[in-house]
Amino acid sequence: MTGWPKCFTGEDIGKNYTLYLITIALVSMLIFPFLSREILLLIFAGAGVYGYITSSNRNITNLIVSVVLLLLISITANHYSYSLPKYIIISAIQISTIGFTSAAIVRRGTKKDSQENTTNLPSSLALLIAGAASAFIAGSWYAYWTAAVSYELIFFIAVIGAITAALFESIPSSVDRLFSMTLGSAMAMWILASFGYTVAPFHLLIAFIFALFLGYLAYRTNIADISAVLSATLMGVLIIVFSNILWFVLLLTFFILGGVFTKYKYNYKLDLGIAQEKGGVRTYENVFSNSTAALVLAIACGIYPQHSNLITYAFLGTVATAAGDTLASEIGTTARQSPRMITNLKPTKTGTDGAVTSLGELAAFGGALAIGILGAAFGFVEQIIPAILITCAGGWGGTNIDSLLGATFQKNGYLSNSGVNFVATAIGALISGILYILVL
């Protein structure tokens, strides 16, 4: 035998390749509870060097390298009173071996796709289910021998790690997927495990099924692609677990509004060259740029319940900003009047970063108002009128900050459109949070 198998090309997974991945998964699971990080590092480093020297295919070698990096991080963290637990590393290995193999097998049997490296919804679901199950089994094996972690926490991070890995696999990248999936899932699990926050498995499953189902509906109606479905599922699970289901429904309202109004006069916007690409289908970039601030606030609400009122108002402000900005862009660009730059009010071309119209300003206010009314209807707040006004102020203010950033930082290349969206939604949350402190 001369190194790792060379049969992983095109649609052909290869029996030997599959056997190698399963062997790595099983052996890793068996030895991790009993060997120190240093010994494990020597074993995987040796395997990586061997694979690099002897193999023309680098998939398995890249997997080994990612594990070596995680072990180095874990050893270094221990020296500085931090901890990257071994059960997280072994869970990441399972997701990247068993999960990825399951996804590849499903892709090979799907007639719709002609290439093995083309993700599809069935293969992503296979990765999710097989990855989460194998990660939970391996983590439970570790917990049985070490009693270092609860089974509830293992189940929680296994699900989050599998969703994260599936997301990384769905995003086109020049980086080897086994490498990015292993590191990405491990980092996500490490962050959540460090909170020490656990959730009942049944509650987690309900959250997962609900978020995935809504994501699937968005996919079937051409509002979202696979990466957006997985991104929304990840965010949905975390938001539901740390806050409640209505927080996710409110955030989802923004995506629905965006998807609907993207189609508004789409041909007209297409003729002007300002229509959303791919028919307005949302990607992971849209999800994360507009929802990261909301996710952070939802997690903060679960960790710091004593500040729930302030966090709730900030959450309403960030979602209102996302909704207001989307409606301002999709509706405002159809105005017959000439747009003006927000910085100097001079007429400019439709679609220019930082261009505003009176119709767009009205649409931004309408989007923020819709979020404020829904937030009140869902019982987010007790004082309805002040809450709606504060939400509208945060959403409208954040939307105009978005335009200002577009006319300055984005125009000069300091921020991308996604960066502008993230900063604007964070500022919208800040505006609503400050107004809550001053007014209520």
UniProtKB/TrEMBL annotation:
The keyword Aminoacyl-tRNA synthetase appears for this protein: no
Look up and give the membrane topology term: Multi-pass membrane protein
Task: Keywords in alphabetical order, please.
Answer: Membrane, Transmembrane, Transmembrane helix
Instruction: Provide the Gene Ontology terms for cellular component.
Output: membrane
Q: Which Pfam families match?
A: DUF92
Protein localization? Membrane
| Source species, domain of life | Archaea
Q: Which residues cross the membrane?
A: 20-53, 60-81, 87-105, 125-145, 151-171, 202-219, 248-266, 354-378, 384-407, 419-439
The similarity annotation says: Belongs to the TMEM19 family.
Task: Give the protein's recorded name.
Answer: TIGR00297 family protein
User: From which organism does this entry originate?
Assistant: Methanohalophilus euhalobius
